[in-house]
Design brief:
By secondary structure, the protein is mainly α. It contains 15 helices and no strands. Helix 5 packs across helix 12 and helix 8 runs parallel beside helix 13.
Length: 434
Amino acid sequence: MARQLPRALQPLRHEPYRWLFGTLVMSMLGAGLLIVALVWQVVALGGGPTELSAVTSASAVGMLVTTLLGGALADRIPQRGILLGVELVQAAAVGVIAVLSLSGLIDVWHLSVVSLITGLAAGLYYPAYSALLPSLLPAHDLLAANGLEGVLRPTLMQAAGPALAGTLIAMTSPGVALLAAAVAAFGAALLVMGLPATPVRRELTDVSTNPVVAVLADVREGFVYMMRTPWLLATLAYASVMVLVTMGPFEVLVPFAIKDMAGGGPREHAFVLAAFGVGGAIGSMAVASFRLPRRYLTVMNLLWALGCIPLVVFGFSSDVWVMVAAGFVMGTMFSGGMVIWGTLLQRRVPPELLGRVSSLDFFVSLAFLPVSMALAGPVSALIGIRTTFLVAGLVPAILAVVTIVAARLPADEIAHPLDVADPDESRELAPAKH
C-alpha cells in the first residue's frame, strides 16, 4: 500500500494517524466556522469594530497565556488527554453561546468570555499535537504529515469553514453556525478517543516535587535548551523579526494598497487572501511530496525570504492581478518553509522537550503578531506605505541570508543530516496501551 500511495499521502496508511488526521479535519473546520459565526453574531447584536475587536482579541490573549503552560503539560502528561480536553472544552463553550443565541439571550460579553475560554484551551492544543505526532509515525513520514496539516489549514479554516458558516448564517442565523462549530468540536473529541493511549516519551524523576514548581522548572528548561541550541535560537530569532516586519503590513496595509493603488475593494481583497490560502495548500503539498532536503535549514530560511519579497509588489503595483499573484507566491513560500520547520522540530528536538519547544515557537508567533499589526499603521504614516512595504519585503530577505551565514546553518545541517536513504525505513514507535 505504501508503494501505491503518493509520498504526500503515505502517513494515512498508519491507522493511528488516520484518527489524528480526522481530528484535525473536524477541529479546523470548526475553527473556520467559529471565526465567521462570531463576527456575524457581533453584527447581529448591533456591535461594531470595537466590540468585534474585544471578542477576537480575547481569544488571542487566552492562547498567549496558556501556550507555554501547554508545552510543559505536553511533556508531562499523555497528549491524547490534552487534545480530548481541549476539544470538549471548546464544544461545551461554543455550545453554550449557540444555545444562548438561538434562545435570544446572548450578549456581546458572552462572546468575549467564550472567546477567552476557547483561546485558553487552544493554547494547549498545538504543543500537544506536535509532541504526539512523532509517536504515531515513523520519522520519514513526518514531513508528509506536516504537509497534510499545511493543506488542511487554508482549505478548511480559511475556505470551507467560513463558506459553510456564511451559508448557514444566510439561510438561518449566526446561532446555527455557532451550533455547527460546537458539533465539529465534539466530533473532533470523538475521533481523539480513537487514538491509541501513547505514553509520554520522557522519564519523570521529580514526582515528589510541587506540581507548580515542577511545571515552572519545565518551562525554564525549555528556554535553556533554546538558548543553548544555535540552530533553534537563530531560526526563532529570525522568525520573530520576520513576523514583526511582515505580518502587520500584510494584514493591515494590503487592503488600503488594493483600494488606493489598484482601485479595488473587499472582493479584490478576498481574491488576494484566497490566493494566499491556495498558495499555502499547494506549497505544503509540494514540499510534502519530496524527501526532506539535505540543506533543510538553508532551504527553509530561503523559502521564507522568498515569501517576503512579494510584499514589495503591494507598494508599487496598480494591478489587482499582480497583487493576487504576489499573495499566491507568499502563501506558497511561507507554507513550504513551515512544513520543513515543523518536521525539523519533531526530528531534531529531544522527545522529552518537544512540547515545550513547540510552545515557544507558537508563543513567538502569538506575541509578535499583534505588535506588528499595531505598528503597521503608525509606521506607514511616518515613512509612507510604499517604503513600509519595501522594508517589509526586503529586510527579512536580507536577514535570512545573514542568519544562514552568521549562525553557520549550512555546517550544522551537514553535521546533522535528516534525509532518509530508504523511504521504507522506519523507526520504532512508542507502544500503544489500550
